[in-house]
């Protein structure tokens, strides 16, 4: 069986097809608009803090992974790359900006690995979504665990290389955020299959 044969529509494609009656824009304009909307959601998710234990959380990893799965690996990856490019040129789109710096200097700081993780995680979960992993709770849960693991792995590895492994790197960059990550994984695993059910009923 070829790769094309097993590919499924993404949620974005189901809601706004690139062909047929709803295709009022050409493909590039549609993709550009979706990428812009996705980048604005990423910006908003970085700025809103949710009270949580043991530390407040943003909803950014949730937004990254949901956008990746809803858009698919190409558009999801392009959307996160567009968001990162906005930050690279100095726009205050990241958490803690402009207070903690701007542009490439911020991206080279302690959160740099997590930002790279956003891009790779969106591509990974988007690839899985195109193979139907966003249709069931269990598969969505597995995809979200994988995506979150990618973000944390790259974030912690970069943080350790930056500040030194003689420091309590896991205490700084992993352990405090695990409860929030579990919450966001569970939320995403519920939201995406429910969205597909709503789309199916509408159809």
Whole-number tally of structural domains:
1
CATH architecture: Orthogonal Bundle
Percentage of residues in helical conformation: 55-70%
Shape: globular
Global Rg: 17 Å
Distance between the termini: 28 Å
Low-confidence stretches: none
SS element count, helices: 9
Outline the biggest β-sheet: 2 strands, antiparallel
| Strand line-up across the major sheet | 1-2
Please render the helix and strand layout as text.
Blueprint: H1 11-15, H2 27-47, E1 49-50, E2 57-58, H3 60-71, H4 73-88, H5 103-107, H6 112-129, H7 137-163, H8 169-173, H9 178-202
Antiparallel strand pairs: 1-2
Helix pairs in contact: 2-3, 2-4, 3-4, 3-6, 3-9, 4-6, 6-7, 7-9
Question: Would you give an account of this structure?
Answer:
The mean pLDDT is 90. The chain has helices at 11-15, 27-47, 60-71, 73-88, 103-107, 112-129, 137-163, 169-173, 178-202, and strands at residues 49-50, 57-58. α3 (60-71) packs parallel to α6 (112-129), α6 (112-129) packs antiparallel against α7 and α7 runs antiparallel to α9. The protein is 66% helix and 2% strand. It has one domain: Arp2/3 complex 21 kDa subunit ARPC3, CATH 1.10.1760.20. It is mainly alpha-helical and 203 residues long. β1 and β2 form a beta hairpin.
What's this entry about, in short?
The chain has about 200 residues and is an all-alpha fold.
Based on the model shown, name its key terms.
single chain; 203 residues; mainly alpha; Arp2/3 complex 21 kDa subunit ARPC3; two-stranded antiparallel sheet; 66% helix
